Amino acid sequence: MTMSPFTRVLLGLCCLLVALWLVAPTLVVVPMSFNENKSLAFPPKGFTLDWYANFFSNPEWSSSLFNSLKVASLVAVAATVLGTLAAFGLDRMKSASAGWLRMILLTPMIVPGVVLGIGIYAVYLDTHLVGTLFGFVVAHTMLAIPFVLIAVSASLEVFDKRLELAAASLGAGRWTTFRTVTMPLIAPGILSGFLFAFVTSFDEIIVSLFITSPYLKTLPVQIYSSITRDADPTVAAVGTILFLATTLLIGLGLVLFGRERRT
Amino acid sequence: MATAVPTLGRGAAIGIRSVSKHYGGFAALSDVSLHIEPGEFMTFLGPSGSGKTTTLNLIAGFTDISGGHLDVGGKSVVGVPAHKRNIGVVFQHYALFPHMTVGGNVAYPLSLRRVPAAERTERVKRALEMVKMTDFAHRYPSELSGGQQQRVALARAIVFDPPLLLMDEPLGALDKKLREWLQLEIKRIHRELGTTFVYVTHDQEEALVLSDRIAVFNGGRVEQIGTGRQLYDEPATLFVGRFIGDSTVLRGAARSDGTGTALTIAGETVVTDKRLSGGGVPVMLIRPEKLRLQRRSATGAGDGLNRLAGRISEVIYLGSGSKYEVELADGSTAIVRSPLGDESFAIGDPVDLLFSPADAKLLADDRSADTTLT
Ligand SMILES: Nc1ncnc2c1ncn2[C@@H]1O[C@H](COP(=O)(O)OP(=O)(O)OP(=O)(O)O)[C@@H](O)[C@H]1O
Ligand SMILES: [Mg+2]
Fold first, then answer.
1. Where would a tag sit more exposed on chain A, N or C end, judged by fewer CB atoms within 10 A?
2. Distance between CA A10 and CA A81 in Å, rounded?
């Protein structure tokens, strides 16, 4: 089927508009971070790197970045291990209850963040976990597991289980088979699960607002409290840095994934 | 091949006694017994769903038996996990590890056995030489053709010197020319290794080319075990007779007495000197080279030969002779092979079908043989 030139132009225009709409918030944040005035005005005036300097020199900002990195790293590791084990177990379960178990494991993705936040806050108050590293890691891991589960399950779906029989016939026990055959072949799924888990924790705000304390703030919480207190363009600088970092991270993931697929 | 040292007699014997396998209420195998000699080339032959793969999987340890005894190399392997059985397996779908090179695949079982690196390299090289894949050691499986992948899979399955090699339709996905060539390769490798081979196929020609003995499976049972010649000349059941080679089956009103059995088919009567020992309705099975054709004549056959009237319905030129299909008066089809130089016939010619009473095999009728064959 061929398109008339008019349809083609119309289609292109629509795509352009939607694309513009999707990247607009990002395009607003980047110029604002170079604003000379201490306000979040758009369009910005002048050019300065002060806000970037502030981000790295102000301990409030740097410690929250450090907290976020710490929490996200721990969450990525924990969620990847637990989510991979869950995906593997569910994949091998013969009983019909596997479907239900999978649903239960995916609920943190469906339940509204506010509801989860209230529930977690109530429990954390009693158990004195509010504002603790452990509390953050546990809460974020719960939110991140579904992403790992989905990514690893997708890999297992296309994994040829007959390779495991071949490995067994060649003398490999179950653990050796997993280590040398299954895991390398589902590595792209595990890796993308890891990245998703990291990002999920790193930019999580709703639950974090409930369980934060003045002594332990993650970066999103810091951004939020800063912007509600005063219109500090440092927020825009942080946003720009985060935008670049995530783009690099995801790009790296895609490259790794592509290399894995080619062999 | 100069490098291969013949090490005959290293194969393991296999004893399968009264083995059954159930999937829920369904019996995939019932009461299967067969003994495989050390170093023997045994083929499991049978139609789809007859239990060949199931039996192979039980020997390999991929599934557990539901009942009976299973010995490999004189020791019971019931309850022994697959990775401790030291049995080589070649799969129809190759099952090469896609993330390892050809060399890596073949070295895999040796690494698991902690074979020192130098010896490992040497043995991988030898195994790849045996299947003529030395030049491909650094390629990945995705860069190989089906036939090449299967040769690598074979090298991987023999590199650790298992006393038993199982192959489940290893050539099933390959074209005919390649299949015939690889059959000869497999036969050569079997001769050089002296390992016991168990081979699954539903192609009877392949079974005849390769095997020392063939076990014919049907409906989760073993119908008969024997050499290709025994199965062809002395089929124990109608199913075996029809599955191995071409055959003509004659059905009719039967009458037995002390001297033999007579069958009346659409008004004509044929006789044989045999009688059915067990129960059942007797039918005659005749091999195509035992049948002779001649132009329809009013005179009798003479020489004590049986005679049936028919009409040529198909002529197949074979090079070394011709194969005819003859439609008989009762609507059934006879298959006749006549050597080069014999009188030739055209479709529609009325003919007489002649055969000696001694050449007819008498078997119990089994209508299931008709359905499972097609
Ligand atoms: N995991 C299973 N669960 C239930 N039934 C099974 C299972 N595996 C095999 N069967 C059944 O057991 C019977 C024998 O199967 P098997 O795979 O041994 O046949 P086969 O002789 O190898 O046939 P083919 O030539 O088609 O490979 C079949 O009817 C099949 O449906
Ligand atoms: Mg099979």
1. N
2. 48
CATH number of residue B78's parent domain: 3.40.50.300
Q: How many domains does chain A have?
A: 1
CATH of the domain at A90: 1.10.3720.10
* Ligand with smallest separation from the Cα of B51: 1
What is the C-alpha to C-alpha distance for residues B145 and B155, in angstroms, rounded to an integer? 15
Token pair recorded at residue B346: 């055209």
CB < 8 Å to B95, chain A: 160, 162-163, 165-166
Look at residue A253 and tell me if it is in a domain: no
- Average of per-residue pLDDT values in chain B: 89
Q: Over pLDDT 70: what percentage of chain B?
A: 94
Chain B positions in Cβ-Cβ contact with residue A167 (cut-off 8 Å): 83, 97, 108
B248-296, pLDDT tens digit by residue? 999 988 888 878 888 888 888 888 888 888 778 889 999 999 999 988 8
Do B128 and B187 sit in the same domain of this protein? yes
Specify the ligand 1 atom closest to the Cα of B47: 25
Task: Give the span between the Cα atoms of A4 and B368, in whole angstroms.
Answer: 63
Give the C-alpha distances (Å, rounded to integers) separating A261 from A183, B104, B140, B290: 14, 18, 13, 60
Neighbouring-strand partners of residue B197: B41, B165
A140 with A133: CB under 8 angstroms?
A: no
The answer to whether position A79 is within a domain reads yes
CATH number of the structural domain spanning residue B295: 2.40.50.140
Q: Are residues B101 and B181 in the same domain?
A: yes
- Kindly provide the ipTM of the predicted complex, given to two decimals: 0.83
Q: Show the domain range for B365.
A: 250-370
